[in-house]
Write a structure and sequence with these properties.
This protein has 462 residues and is an alpha+beta fold. It folds into three domains: 9-176 and 414-455, Triger factor/SurA peptide-binding fold (Orthogonal Bundle), CATH 1.10.4030; 189-201 and 306-407, Roll (Chitinase A, domain 3); 204-301, Chitinase A, domain 3, CATH 3.10.50. The protein is 47% helix and 16% strand. It has 15 helices and 13 strands. The chain is globular, with a radius of gyration of 25 Å. Residues 188-288, 291-401 form the PpiC domain. Residues 335-354 are annotated as: Disordered.
Length: 462
């Protein structure tokens, strides 16, 4: 049976290469999951203008799909489907080049940082990741940088093509009415979970200690010591510290306001006073300006937090929880107004399903810490404050709310409107992408290895 709530064919192909590339191909490039002693014979199997598809690109994603199938039959012509999706993505890159679509360095850096944090969490720590590959984090990032830039460029092109597409409730109902009853998917238990996070407060003595240390370092630099060597020794920015504090070039509004304002007041070679931002305290040196861009190096110190500091944040959450339980405010409003996690806070505290963007989370895919927390909770309950460590390593506390618990069921319009709307939107965006491909596939040069000639690259009817 075909599940209509799955992404349409073209969107599924694009997602396969983009999202699989985000984790699977990144792991594959770093060597994760590749059988020891087995080497893939590489070579170019397709060219789309000046963009190329390597055999290893196809084989890496194919291997991930085989592993994901866990012995179940694979879709027919899977390698052709993967190659089609890769070729379509290369068309996006080719057109991005001619249309001057550019992804900023800051966005690439943020995505690299996010992925390295993810990899480090999977393997245990940054140190273990470096030991496993016998490479420093800096080198791993540099090896991933071209791939990440390509993926972000592809996504930006897709957003330009179909990013403004929306669906109305009427269109969602029409979409649902087209689904044959025997094709309606069956959903396992799903929950909606909210959280309000408060970071551990930094006490004034810890702040003062960081400021004093940076002022001492500033004096040493002015007395002739090397900024770069002191940055390598003292900076707590893992990305730039090993590079002597060098951040590279950024445009206006690409760095936090406090940092940018201080940097742009400097002359090349000049040192800033100590600057505070959401990341901690900085000592900044302007290197040079090029038009609207500027390059700097910095030393970052993060004031230490302790149990006492976390207790202060917990006291705030105790008061907030009391207001929620007494109905003097809603969890959603409390999260929006008070949570230090701006992403979930803007969503009323609710966690999002990364696969479809909804707030419904399959029980078997929950983070274990949340799963065991809500396992015995009743719908509507809010936990007392609990210790928590954020993805970027910050000490925090949080309260968790179980908004809903939906038992296993077959899809229906009332309970699954969010999923239906997401699927209907994907179908509509898919049509917009198909139209774009039809209009642009003839504008590029295509060459395919004879072994894959039957795959009909860039054929939207295939």
């Amino acid at each position: 049976m075909t599940h209509f709530l799955r992404l349409p064919k073209r969107a599924a192909l694009l997602t396969l290469a983009l999202l699989a590339g985000t984790i699977a191909s990144s792991f594959a490039q770093l060597g994760i999951g590749r059988p020891a002693g087995r080497q893939i014979v590489d070579g170019i199997i397709a060219k789309i203008d000046n963009q190329i598809v390597l055999r290893s690109d196809l084989e890496a994603i194919y291997a991930q799909e085989v592993a994901r199938a866990e012995g179940k039959p694979l879709p027919p012509n899977l390698k052709c489907r993967i190659l089609q999706s890769l070729a379509l993505n290369k068309l996006l890159l080719a057109k991005a080049e001619t249309d001057s679509v550019v992804v900023e360095d800051a966005q690439v850096k943020n995505e690299l940082d996010r992925r390295m944090n993810y990899f480090a969490q999977q393997i245990g720590s940054e140190k273990k990741l470096e030991e496993y590959y016998n490479k420093p984090i800096k080198q791993l990032k540099e090896e991933l940088r071209p791939q990440v830039r390509e993926q972000l460029t592809q996504q930006k092109m897709q957003d330009q093509i179909a990013g403004k597409v929306t669906v109305t409730p009427r269109e969602v109902r029409q979409y649902f009415s087209r689904i044959p009853k025997d094709s309606l998917p069956y959903y396992s238990t799903e929950v909606e979970v909210g959280q309000i996070i408060k970071y551990a407060k930094v006490n004034s003595s810890a702040k003062q200690a960081a400021q004093t240390q940076l002022n001492d370092l500033r004096a040493r630099i002015l007395a002739g010591e090397s900024f770069e060597e002191l940055a390598k020794q003292y900076s707590q920015d893992p990305g730039s510290g090993a590079q002597g504090g060098y951040l590279g070039f950024f445009g206006r509004k690409e760095l936090v306001p406090e940092y940018e304002a201080a940097a742009l007041r400097l002359e090349p070679g000049q040192l800033s006073p100590v600057v505070e931002s959401q990341f901690g305290f900085h000592l900044i040196q302007l290197i040079e300006r090029k038009g609207d861009k500027y390059s700097t190096r910095h030393i970052l110190l993060k004031p230490a937090t302790g149990a006492t500091d976390a207790n202060e944040s917990a006291k705030e959450l105790v008061k907030l929880r009391r207001r929620i339980l007494s109905d003097s405010t809603t969890f959603a409003k409390a999260a929006k107004d008070n949570s230090d996690d701006k992403q979930t806070g803007a969503n009323g505290g609710l966690l999002q399903n990364r696969e479809d963007g909804s707030t419904y989370l399959p029980l078997d895919k929950l983070d274990p810490a949340i799963f065991f927390t809500i396992d015995t909770m009743k719908v509507g309950n809010v936990t007392p404050p609990m210790p928590y460590r954020t993805d970027d390593g910050k000490d925090a506390v949080r309260i968790i709310w179980l908004k809903s618990n939906t038992p296993p069921h077959q899809a229906n319009f009332k309970d699954d409107y969010q999923k239906l709307a997401a699927a209907a939107l994907a179908e509509k965006k898919n049509k917009a992408l198909d139209e774009w491909f039809s209009q642009n596939r003839g504008s590029v040069y295509i060459e395919v290895d004879p072994q894959y000639a039957d795959c009909k690259l860039l054929d939207v009817t295939n």
